[in-house]
Structures are given as structure tokens and as C-alpha cells.
Amino acid sequence: MANITKKVSWSSRGDDSALTGEGTPLLNGTEIPKPSRQVSMSLDYDNIENQLFLEEERRMSHMGFRCLEISRWVICGLIGILTGLIACFIDIMVEKLAGYKYQVIKENIEKFTEVGGLSISLILWAVLNCAFVLVGGVMVAFFEPIAAGSGIPQIKCYLNGVKIPRVVRLKTLVVKVIGVICSVAGGLAVGKEGPMIHSGAVVAAGVSQGRSTSLKRDFKMFEYFRRDTEKRDFVSAGAAAGVSAAFGAPVGGVLFSLEEGASFWNQMLTWRIFFASMISTFTLNFFLSIYHGKPGDLSNPGLINFGRFESDSVAYYYYEIPLFMCMGALGGLLGALFNSLNYWLTIFRIRYVHRPCLQVIEALLVAAVTAAVSFTMIYFSNDCQPLGPEHNEEYPLQLFCADGEYNAMATAFFNTPERSVRSLFHNQPGSYNPLTLGLFTLTYFFLACWTYGLAVSAGVFIPSLLIGAAWGRLCGILLASFTPTSPIWADPGKYALIGAAAQLGGIVRMTLSLTVIMVEATGNVTYGLPIMLVLMIAKIVGDYFQEGLYDIHIKLQSVPFLHWEAPATSHWLTAREVMSSPVTCFNRIEKVGTIVDVLSNTSTNHNGFPVVVQPAKLCGLILRSQLIVLLKHKVFVELARSRLSQRKLQLKDFRDAYPRFPPIQSIHVSQDERECMMDLTEFMNPTPYTVPQDTSLPRVFKLFRALGLRHLVVADDVNRVIGLVTRKDLARYHLGKHGLEELQLAQT
Amino acid sequence: MANITKKVSWSSRGDDSALTGEGTPLLNGTEIPKPSRQVSMSLDYDNIENQLFLEEERRMSHMGFRCLEISRWVICGLIGILTGLIACFIDIMVEKLAGYKYQVIKENIEKFTEVGGLSISLILWAVLNCAFVLVGGVMVAFFEPIAAGSGIPQIKCYLNGVKIPRVVRLKTLVVKVIGVICSVAGGLAVGKEGPMIHSGAVVAAGVSQGRSTSLKRDFKMFEYFRRDTEKRDFVSAGAAAGVSAAFGAPVGGVLFSLEEGASFWNQMLTWRIFFASMISTFTLNFFLSIYHGKPGDLSNPGLINFGRFESDSVAYYYYEIPLFMCMGALGGLLGALFNSLNYWLTIFRIRYVHRPCLQVIEALLVAAVTAAVSFTMIYFSNDCQPLGPEHNEEYPLQLFCADGEYNAMATAFFNTPERSVRSLFHNQPGSYNPLTLGLFTLTYFFLACWTYGLAVSAGVFIPSLLIGAAWGRLCGILLASFTPTSPIWADPGKYALIGAAAQLGGIVRMTLSLTVIMVEATGNVTYGLPIMLVLMIAKIVGDYFQEGLYDIHIKLQSVPFLHWEAPATSHWLTAREVMSSPVTCFNRIEKVGTIVDVLSNTSTNHNGFPVVVQPAKLCGLILRSQLIVLLKHKVFVELARSRLSQRKLQLKDFRDAYPRFPPIQSIHVSQDERECMMDLTEFMNPTPYTVPQDTSLPRVFKLFRALGLRHLVVADDVNRVIGLVTRKDLARYHLGKHGLEELQLAQT
Question: 3-state DSSP call for residue B458?
């Protein structure tokens, strides 16, 4: 029966909650120092329903609900507009700054090409890059470390129900936006698309609460939405709006949100998410079209625009599908390699590069090396291409080429990555020679791998696409050279597209949403099937060797992330084996001193407590946060004189405190007050979900996923509390290569 | 507190189940005779988990689960291929038959135009139409009435968890396919797209079970999937494949399935559904491209192809958006009118046209009238258009036009509806004059309204699109005529598109999936926002007056359909008020006679029974179907000598009986056997979900929706059974215009 093959002991059978020390999670048998500031917290989607809440709901009229519904739509519209504006701002800033930079360097190079002394150009390039990266790196490393990277793992966690602190704050947004502008303008091998998803999520979390705690402004709006369930729904909409703005893919955005976040599909919610996505693309397009001097031209969706693949000119044939599938496998392999390298690099960073100044120095080093490598590649390349009349290079570098020609390597390196991707997709056959592409793939692969995880705001989507497009185009060229007479493989652009999909799929392992994003970004439905097959194969091959990049980073933070289904072979586990036991319970009328002691006790860092009537019979569930608000407002009943609480607490008090509940240490309770009693009846959830102790793990898991639970009380056959299953209890079980494994999660 | 405004008594607080008589449901205060053969049954997505099942799961290895997973993919691939082939078959047959018909009539008309005597042509046309419709009508009315209509309401019910008998049988599929070919070739105002969804679902239900009960063949494959949960998942995939084949919209198909069916979003399932959709479009394209003599050209997705809207040539400007929104409102109004008319017509039909021969006669009448009206319209139209060099009319009718011209009315009427839609979208400006379009809209509106609900297989998508495209194009022409100098409104094609979306949205009230389907079918992402806005407005306006067409038809069948969320103002209702009580319970070891009596008793037509140990303490839940299998196999324990059951029942026995469990009447139990005992321990679900009696209705509802429950036991604080909430108990509550209403559902 006991087919757990690897069982690592865990020190605290703690809850899904609260404060963490410097843990030492074990992953793949390697001990990793815990990254600092990893205070994760679960979100609560269920246990809000107490008497106060029910009373409010019951008082609310039909019209009241309709007003709420309209507010939700208004908020989603606002989310879309703001996200679109942010995308627009980032796009214009990057274009301006990068344009300025490339212009300066281009002039400098042109000046020195003839007279010699190109090393000065190299230094200029490196210095400019470093200057940008310095600004971005300092902001991230010193002010808001959570803004580093693409933010997608953090948003995935948030939507899954694990809240990483400060992830949806205004400060994070500001740092993220400036950071991403700096890193893209600084010439790093990064994209600005991933951070858009994070930005959208922050916008959503802010707008939906009708206040900003950072700015200390409360607009007294949308107070109803100040709770985890509602906020999560809006954050999904924000993430979708972000994807939509980044890729011009509103449907892809919706699917991304659903793939990552939805446990319970709700039609109206999905429809609102779609609305936010649509508005976001529309806003971005509207303002960009004005900026580009073509107001009203709304046909240019997204920050990255792959350019349209016309089905007439770039058709594929069904016998090419096996070739595409081989490329998918290759993408999976390269993706797994990328992820493994990045995994070891990240562990190295956690261990040795955890001080902010070191992080900034590393970022500067990467910026300088990127400039140097790019320059070297361009310098030694002798791939000269004629500058055609319809060339669309923005900064064609002539360098050592003849007049009327330009350096092809420079189109790949001397450009923002977005433009390079588009060139690889759409430049005419013959624009690149195979050696250029091979060298470019090689260098860019390692640069991108080194860059991801730096203390800068940056996404991995575009670099992945770029690497894939490069080797994909290379494949196309090679295939064409084998059969020089056949016109079928004449256009290497489609191979670039397939390669890009394969590489991206191999790295991030997204499936459905990525297919739709790619289809929307290429504006061509016919490529749907090959892209889907390629992503599928890339995922299968990649998963064999290594997890997806985001999953790796989530795992390294050892958060209790719940996957879609319980591990397949976990049917023999029951709630009894999984639950935490014994559980700290409170009486319905409990002594204040007891409550304070339990909450202060760091060994019982639970977030939810069953409420019982003697003898141990379950009558409700109350949350740590609720108890803290109660203590703060001193809702005590004096001994002997019951039913004389000092003031009546309202739902508003809980909402005002949301989401930054003070720690228990900050609440002073006098010795007299400790002797008072607290009546929890009104504040607890009177009907928590329970399961009998024989319930199988998949059944418990399904309940958690489908209802967004955080705590599930295990009761015996006379309804006495015998245990509590938390999110972390479930997240421990994991299907490894050799069957069911039990992971140790940090004592968070 | 009691704010139920309308409470209609219901005669039997029955279960979500079993046999029905000729009920008299009250809807909108009107008494409607119950349509015959409306034996609806709930599907069970949860209570399968008994000891036998758990044992099997526990025995199964990691590899076993992987094999299952691979089988699921294989099945989805098969579903895609078969659905694609069926779509291909329908398409080719319709094209052949309709082509033949129009050719004959065209020749006949041409012959008689000059010599006079066009009434002969009219008769020929009417006779040909009637001949086709006769075949289709007889098949449907006499052999399989469930194959009538588009099948979408039935599939919606199935995915929602209500099974309408015979809806996924092979016979239904055959009748559906032949029926739809006949009705489209017969010139009715119908489409072949809706039935594709039903066909896909039937294919899925068949393939996934690895056997055909109709053909009495058991391939001994996929036995694991012989249960409601798994079958439902495959049926979603089938429906998606159907949408995908019909509209060339794989993503739209996935979203359709999710919108209608998913309560619990599962990533792998969605991904498989997407796979089935992709394969289905691909198969259809592959074979159609071969049929059309252009093998390998895969760029022509779907049965209906709206033709590509090039963003360059058919751009819209943002100041057109308010106009689009007005059209959306108009679509909503017209849709509500359509639905109201159809509602009254359907009630009329249920009351007076319920005999098969009458149904066939009505269908013939409609066919003849359609031919007559079309002919009259063409005859009296004097809208002659020059026959350009690039004209794409397949059957241009010259009639009384000058040489080199053709009758424009004939392009709309004398054609399959799919082609007419495309002509309205893409013909050059000036191809139609406003009067033609106005008359066409008017007549086609009433024809389509009359046709929907006939005893023929037919969809309402295409007629709706056609009506909308006609008045949309009319709007475009009128707008252009107001501002003759402005080139903006030069192309009425985009207005036709918007009108089509508005009309379809106003009738069916689908939202997200319809947007995506329209976007995919037009191949243009930029129209996403306007289409979405239009659909939204159409839905809001339409909902104000009347429900969606499918919802009307679902409601008329009075099935316990669960919507997405509990009615907003239902927080004051608790499980205690909602539940059925008292409940018939069984003891864990129960007398056979008692079981037989309970099952035979028509007044307790429950489908699930709590199992208790004395005194009334809940220990499990067992289903009617399981009891029937147990009785059939006579798994009895003789009195006095316990633990001596004649044979050990296995999971296989339950699977073999699935899904057509015999009625209790067919099982003979002798008087001796009645005295035996039955031990239910192994067969019951030992851990059914329970709720306390104070749980609010929204909470109960959420549990039902999220977990796909059918029975929920209400237990008191010592775990004694005090009631049972069934799907029907929840479906009764309904948010009307004046607050919460309690509907009467038929005694099904």
C-alpha cells in the first residue's frame, strides 16, 4: 500500500500561512538556502460567509445586486484602459530611448568605421547599456525586489491562491514599469511582454479596491469588493488585460487567466475578463495609432506584432507537419536545457548573490557582456545583404559592407528583440545566411539564460521567441538547400514561426493559452494545428527532462502551489493521513487571553481555527485575520455581564482592515482584558465544509480546487473535529518519476 | 423575509429523476401540455466513488494511469476525425443535392421565362423541396423525434447534467445527419451548423464507450470510461469538435463547451477538447481540399466560411462603434421578437401538432410556402445587377433581366443560406438595392421563425446570420446614402457582418464563445471588439424582453437546468428550506423486499438514497442504478448465514450495465428472495458530501455546480440525515423580474 517512494521529513506540520524563517526546503535532494522575504500567505476564497456577511446580503435588494454587477463591469473597463495606457507608455518610452541609443551608437560606429577605433563605439555601447540597466537594477534590487523578473510566477501563485507579499502593490507597479523600460532600452536579452501581465494584475488589484494603501487614499468606492474572492477575480481580469495588451491577443489573455487561475468557471466572470482584455487591446491600439500619426487605424494589435502571415503566400502543406513535430521535439530539448541551466544559476544566485549591491553588479556585468558579445558578433560577421527598396530595418548598419548593403548580423543584434523577431519571420528568403543564424542562436541562448533571474524587470517570452525564430529559420534554410528545386520550402519565415513556438513552449510549457496567443499574434488561424502540435510535443519532450521555467521558480520559493488534479496514484491516501492533527480549536465564547496566546504562539501558525461547542462539536470556522480585527476593536464581553460588547462590529471594519491585517504582536491587550470573553458566533463561518476522515485524497483535493478552500475540517461521525486539512497538506503530495512523492515545504 | 413573489405549488417534491407522466408545468402562468417522451434524468458526476472503485484505483499503477491518459487522447483524436468526416459528408451531400436541385430549377425557369408558364417552375420547385423535406421529416417524426431541431438545447442540458434520453445514440446521429441534409437541400430556412454540434456529441459518446448498444457490439475497449463523469468530458470534446467543424473555429468550440458544460475547469481536459477541435477542422479541411481538387490547401476552415475580412480594405473607425452598438440594440429587439414568436408557436405546436403525421405535414407546408415565397419575391423583384467578370454567384438567374444581368433577389433566395451570407458580406457595394434587402429580411425573418421547431433536423445559426446580414447591409447602404461623399461607409459588408452578429446574438444570447466563433470565422481579430460590444448589447436588450431561444426550449421541457450561480437574492434561503424531507434511507444491511418496494414505489422516484446505521446516522449514499444492478445480479445474503453472497460483484458488472439500466419492473424478485438481505457497504459511496442545515442556498448551489453533484445530504449536528437536496430542489429557484420566484418543475 505505502508506495510513497521518497519521503522527506518536514519539520513543522504548519498551516498554509503566516510568517516564515529562513527555511531549508529540500528539492531534488539539494539543500537550498531560502530566499529572504519569502513570506507567503494563502488567499481565502471561501470562509468569508459569516452572519454579518449573510445579513448584508439579505438586506441587499435586487437592485443592489444589479449595481454591484455594473460596478464590476466598470472596474473591468477601467482595468482595461489603464493596462492599455501602461502598455502604451512602456512601448513609447522604449521606442524613444532605444531609438536614441541606437542612433547615437550607429552614428558613432559610422564615424569610426572608416577612421578605425571601433573599440570606442564598443565602450560607448556598453556604457549606454550599463547606464540604463543601472537605473533599472537599483530600483528593483533596493526598492522592490518582488518586481524582478517577469512576474508571471508570482501572478500564477496569486491566482492559484498563494499570496506573495507586496506582489500587487502600487510601488511594485512603478518599479516594474520603470524597470522594464530600462532593461529593454539597456539592450538586455529580455522582453517587455511578461511584465505587462504583472502590471495588469497590479492595476486590477488597485482599481478594484477603490483605494490605495500606499498613497493613503480611500475613495470610498467598491467597498464590497474588499475581500479575497472578489479581488482575485479582478486580478484575473488584469492579468488577461496584460496578456491582451502585450500580444494583441484578447482571447489568449482570457485563456491564460483561466489556465492559471480559474478553478470554478463562471460565465459572467469570463465575459468580464474578456471585456477587460478587449478594452486593453483597443486602448493600446487607439493611443499608439495616434502616436504613430494614423489615428483610427486599429489593426495593429499588441506590443509585439508578429506581422500577419497571409495564408495565401505562406501556406503550409500537410506533409510538412512531421517536420514541424520534429522541430517541436528540438524545442522541448533546448527548452529543458535552458531551464536546467537557469535552475542551477538560480540556486547559485540564491546562495551567493543575495545582497542588493551584488545583484546590481551582476546586472551591470550582463549588460556590458551583452553589448560586447553583440558588438563582436557584428564586427566579425561578413554577412552583407543588399539594402532593398522595401527593406524595413530601422537601424541598418553598413559597417564593413559595400555601399548599398548592410550587415545582416546587426539586424538581429542591433535592434530591440521585438523587431528582430519580426525580421526573422518576415524578411525575404536569403536575408540571412545560415552561419549568422547559427552563431546568433548560440550566443543569444546563453545570454537569455543568464539574463533571466537577474534583479531587473524583464520577460522571457521575447528572448525565447527570438532564439526559436533564429534556429527555426535556420532549419528552413537548410531544408530549402537540400531540395533546391522545390518551391515548397521557399519561405523560411514559417519555419521561424514554428521554431519560435517550439522554443517558447519548451521553456514555459504553456499549452492552450500559448497556442491561442500565437495564433492571434500571427493573425492566421490555419497555423493553429501545427502550432498546437508543436507546443504539445515540446511540452512532452521538455517535461521528460525538466519542469517549466515558471514552475521551477515557483518551486524554488516552496509555496504550496496546488496543481489541477490530485496525483493520479493518491487514491489510497485519506483525509486522516493527510490532515494536521490535533487542531487548535476555540470555544464559541472564548477567553481573550487564550485567543491572544494561540495567535502569538509561533508554533501554531494556523490561519483558520475550528470553533466548537463542548464537547468538541464543530459549529464554525474563524480566520486569524478576523480574530485580529476583533482583538483590535476590542469586541469583548465582560465577565459575568455577557452580551454587553462595547461596540457592534460591522462588516466595514473587516473591509477597512483588508488586506493588511496587523500582526498579533502589534495589538496590545491588557491583563484585565485578557480575562474578558469574546463571542465568536457572529463572526465565524457557521457552515464550514467538512469531510469524514475516510475521504480519499482526490476527493479532498477536488473540493479544495473547485471551491477555492483554504481550510477543510475533518469531522468524525458525530461531527467532532478531529483534524484540519490545509492547502499545504495537499501541496506536499507530488507525482515524481517513481510514483508518489512527499515533498517538504518550507515552514512558511 | 419571505420575498418569493410568485410561488406556484408543485405536486411532487420528487427527485431529479426518473419517469414522468403527462405533466402540466406552469410557465409564465400558462398551462402547457407536457411534450411527450420527456423522460429526463440527471447525470451523476460524483457518487461513483465506492469501495470497488477505490480498490481498482488503488490497484492501478502509475503506468496504468498513464495508459488511461493516452487512451483519452486517442479517443479525442478519433472524435475529431469522425466529426470532421461527418461534417465533410454533410457538406458534400448538401452541395451535390442542392446543386442538382438548383440546376434543374434554373434550367426550368430559363426555359419558361420566355415562353411563359413560370407557374410550372414554381410547382417544380415546391415539389422538389417537399420531396427532400418529406424524407427528412418522416425520419425525424417517426423514427427519432429527439433528432429534431439543432440539438443544441439537448446538448446544453446534457453538459449541464440533465440527460434527455436517447440524445447521444447512434440512431439519433444517423437520423440527424440524413435529416439535416434533407432539410438544407429542401431549401428550408435552416443551417447545417447547429446539428454538427449534436453530431459531434453523439460521436464522442459512442467512441468513448468502446461499444455500441444499438449495434450490439462491444469492442472491450475503454471500459474505464463507462461512467457519467468521463462520458460527459468526452461529450464536451465532441460538441467542441462539432462547433470547430461547423465554423472553422477550434478556439470557439472549446469556449462553447466550457460555457455550456464546464463547471470545474481542468487544464488537461481543456487541452484535449482543443485537440479534438483542431483535428476536426483539420480533417474537414483535408478531405474537402481533396474533394475540391486542391489537396493540401488547408486554409479554408469550416462548413461555413465567412470569407476573410481583410483589415486593410475593410477597416472600421472608432467613431463607427456607437453605430455598431445601435445595431446591437436593434439585433436584441429583433431577436426578442423572434424568440417570442417562436415561443408562442412552440406552445401551439406542443398543444396541437404533436402527432408525427401532423408534424410531417407541417414541415411539408413550410417547405412549399418557402418555395412559393421565394419564387414570388424573385418574380416580382426588378433588382437587376450586371453580371460582372468576377461575380461569384453559383446560380445566377437572369429571369426578366437584360442579357448580362442577373436578378439580385435570387442571389439571396435561390441559393443555400451559407452562400447567401457570404454574398451579403462580400459582394461589392451596389450589388443589392435597399428594397430587395428590406423585403428579404422581412420574409426570411418569418420563414426562419416558423421553421425553427419543425420536426426536421435544422440549425438556427445560419438563418439568424442571414437575416442579420441582410438588415445590416441595408443599414450600411442607408448610412452611405446619407453621406454620399464620405468614403468611410463605402463598404456595406462590414455592416452586414455586424448585423449578422447582432441578430444571432439577439436570438441565441451566447456571448464569449459566439464572439470568438465570429472572429475565427471572419479571420480578423480587429473586429473582435465591435462584435463583442454588439453581442453584449444585443444580449442586454434581448434579455429585457425575452430569454434566449435555447433557454426557452429548455424551459419548455421543464428540465432541472442549473444556471451558473444561485439567484442573487437567495441568501436568506437555507438548506433546510430547500431540501426534500423526509428522505427514504436504507440501512447498511437492508432487506431485499424493502429495497424493491422503495424502488417500485412511483411516489418516491429518488435516484439516490442515503445509507444509515441506526439511529439514522449517515454512513453512505447509494444510487438507484447501483441498487438495480445489485438486484439484477441477486447479490443477496441469506438470512442467518451472513457473508455468503452468491457471487462477488465487480466494477465491470456496473460498467456493462451502464448507461441503460433496466427499470425495476423488469427485475423479478421471488418471495423467498424478498426475505434475504443485501449488504450495501461495498457499493455505496462511503463519503458523500454533506452540509449542515443552516447552509445558505448560494453555498449549496456552489457545491452542486463546482462538483457536479446530484444529491447532497443535509445532516444535523450529530450527523443524522435530515434531508436531501437534489438538483431539482435548486433549479426551482429563479430570479424573475420581481425578485426570487419559485418555479414548478414537472413531476419528472
Answer: coil
